[in-house]
From TrEMBL, chain A:
Protein name: Salicylate 5-hydroxylase large subunit
Organism: Azoarcus indigens
Keyword hit for Metal-binding: yes
Native organism taxonomy: Bacteria, Pseudomonadati, Pseudomonadota, Betaproteobacteria, Rhodocyclales
One GO molecular-function entry: iron ion binding
SUPFAM superfamilies assigned to the protein according to its UniProt record, in alphabetical order: Bet v1-like, ISP domain
UniProtKB/TrEMBL annotation, chain B:
InterPro entries cross-referenced by the UniProt entry: Rieske_2Fe-2S, Rieske_2Fe-2S_sf
Domain of life: Bacteria
Alphabetized CDD domains for the sequence: Rieske_RO_ferredoxin (cd03528)
One Pfam family hit: Rieske
UniProt-recorded name of the protein: Naphthalene 1,2-dioxygenase system ferredoxin subunit
Protein family per UniProt: Belongs to the bacterial ring-hydroxylating dioxygenase ferredoxin component family.
GO terms of molecular function: 2 iron, 2 sulfur cluster binding; dioxygenase activity; metal ion binding
CC cofactor: [2Fe-2S] cluster
Location of the Rieske domain: 4-100
Key word Metal-binding present: yes
Coiled-coil regions, chain positions: none
Organism of origin: Azoarcus indigens
């Protein structure tokens, strides 16, 4: 039977010449998903792990993930940051169950194999056997070397308090991976100031992980989907904006400036609203204070492919960590933070504005839902495709929001790495 | 004020080896190193293992669980994963018996 007429294609290939139409099967195929883990999460890319501020003291650790693989971010007794895989080198147990804590070493509960905080194997129970009635029973073979059986150690890069890691020790330097354009927006938030973690949010979204990257590469939707934004005048399609990508189009910055001069009054007033009569019960949600480090833009959403979104929406800053667990599901972990030099009022302001985000956020709750609804359709008719032609079919940077260029850029890169070229 | 307790016959401690004894509710390891006797707490300061199940080499006892090594003469922790020394006890031999001072 002709593949072109099947709902479930037998031999799916991306035949289109450009990236303006994404086949539904790109979100549903288990084999493709595993290939994505292989090529994006486990090779050639840096994945977000956490913030140095989450492990301030020697012995502090926090569990994180690279793709589906559980890893541990840990500060060792020398003060160095390490990332090791949470898989015992003996029988594969995912031994670390706590989300965070402080310890002198790691111990697998199954056979009590013991590792130092750099991931080196320190001790193996009964390595030399067990003494009984004057003889020694069992033990590891004489050629067993603890040096050969440490935990898998990831390559680590720390930039201004943000920790990235890669299973691929040949990965290019983090700065080259980000490229000069995205690096500028990274350093805009993380300029070396100390960070203070305010709290976490976690949600499991029943959709393909790429949809989350797309969501933050899509300036077309916020003023339309997020009625909270439009009701309270926080997003308009005619905000002064820029969309920028790295040379390979995998990362992006969505930069927007509200009002005309960035003044508070203009930021929160004088904008069209569908429901002008509505008012916030707690006006502190709109207590926005411009900060010098913004350098103009009131919001910059930075997507770092494949695993991270850096959020600056006025005074709310957070890391959003994408942790896939199957082709149709991912965990989304939000780390809200503040800066060490913030005064108490600013910390409070950041916390209150954080109510817009997370699984129940006034704005972000919408994103989780539409991602789920997209995935439902993708599963039903994988032969079909999405349409990404707003603003054209190219993958150029833009100086406005009415375009899907960043998503097209991401799929141009995806096709290149996945070998899905026409 | 030491309280000397008779804990074992001298010949119950084999040459260049270790045994465990219970003294006043405590778990104690007795070592013979080239005819000289030493005593420490039996329980490792790291994992849950007894020194008397470990391997004595010269004056170093290696824990059977994670291969931490202590000097039996002063209880000093010699390597990772150990971070804490073993407690030692004064020992003397009198009349073919081993005596230990606790508190």
């Amino acid at each position: 039977m002709d593949d072109a007429t099947r709902v479930f294609p037998r031999d799916p290939h991306w035949r289109a010449p450009d990236s303006s139409r994404v086949p539904f099967w790109a979100y549903t195929r288990e084999d493709l998903y595993r290939e994505e883990l292989e090529r994006f999460f486990y090779k050639g890319h840096w994945c977000y792990i956490g913030l140095e501020a989450e492990v301030p003291n020697p012995g502090d650790f926090r569990r994180s993930a690279v793709g589906e693989r559980s890893v541990i971010l840990v500060r060792d007794m020398d003060g160095a940051i390490n990332v090791v895989e949470n898989v015992c080198s003996h029988r594969g147990v995912r031994f670390c169950r706590e989300r965070h804590g402080n310890r002198k070493d790691f111990l697998c509960p199954y056979h009590q194999w013991n590792f130092d905080l750099k991931g080196n194997l320190q001790g193996v129970p009964f390595r030399r056997g067990v003494k009984q009635d004057g003889k020694v029973n069992g033990g590891m073979p004489s050629d067993f070397r603890v040096e050969d059986h440490g935990l898998t150690k990831l390559k680590v890069a720390v930039r201004n308090g943000v920790v990235f890691a890669s299973f691929d020790h040949d990965v290019e330097p983090l700065e080259d991976f980000l490229g000069p354009v995205i690096l500028r927006y990274f350093d805009r938030v993380f300029d070396g100031r100390g960070l203070k973690v305010l709290g976490y949010r976690r949600q499991r979204i029943p959709g393909n992980w790429k949809l989350m990257q797309e969501n933050i590469k899509d300036p077309y939707h916020p003023g339309l989907l997020h009625t909270w934004f439009s009701t309270f005048g926080l997003w308009r399609a005619d905000n002064r904006s820029e969309l920028k990508m790295d040379a390979r189009h995998r990362h992006a910055a969505m930069i927007s400036t509200r009002g005309t001069g960035g003044k508070v009054a203009e930021v929160v007033s004088g904008v069209d609203s569908f429901k002008e009569h509505m008012q916030l019960n707690d006006p502190r949600l709109l207590d926005i204070v411009p900060e010098p480090w913004w350098g103009g833009p009131t919001a910059v959403m930075t997507t770092v492919f494949p695993s991270l979104i850096i959020q600056q929406q006025v005074n709310s800053v957070s890391m959003r960590h994408i942790q896939p667990n199957g082709h149709g599901s991912f965990d989304f972990v939000w780390t809200h933070f503040a800066f060490d030099d913030d005064d108490e009022a600013m910390v409070q302001r950041r916390l209150i504005q954080a109510n817009l985000f997370g699984p129940a956020g006034f704005v972000s709750a919408d994103d989780g839902e539409v991602i789920e609804w997209s995935q439902e359709s993708f599963e039903q008719k994988p032969f079909h495709r999405t349409l990404l032609e707003m603003g054209g079919r190219d993958t150029e940077d833009a100086d406005h929001m009415v375009t899907e260029t960043l998503i097209r850029g991401m799929y141009a890169y995806w096709r290149e790495v996945m070998g899905e070229t026409a | 004020m030491s309280n000397w307790i008779d804990v074992a016959a001298r010949d119950a401690v084999p040459a260049d080896d270790v045994i465990g004894v219970e003294v006043a509710g405590r778990d104690i390891a007795l070592y013979d190193v080239e005819g000289e006797l030493y005593a420490t707490d039996n329980l490792c300061t790291h994992g849950r293992a007894r020194m008397c199940d470990g391997f004595l080499e010269g004056h170093e006892i290696e824990c059977p669980l994670h291969q931490g090594r202590f000097d039996v003469r002063d209880g000093k922790a010699l390597c990772a994963p150990l971070t804490e020394n073993l407690r030692c006890y004064p020992v003397r031999v009198e009349g073919g018996r081993v005596w230990l001072a606790v508190e």
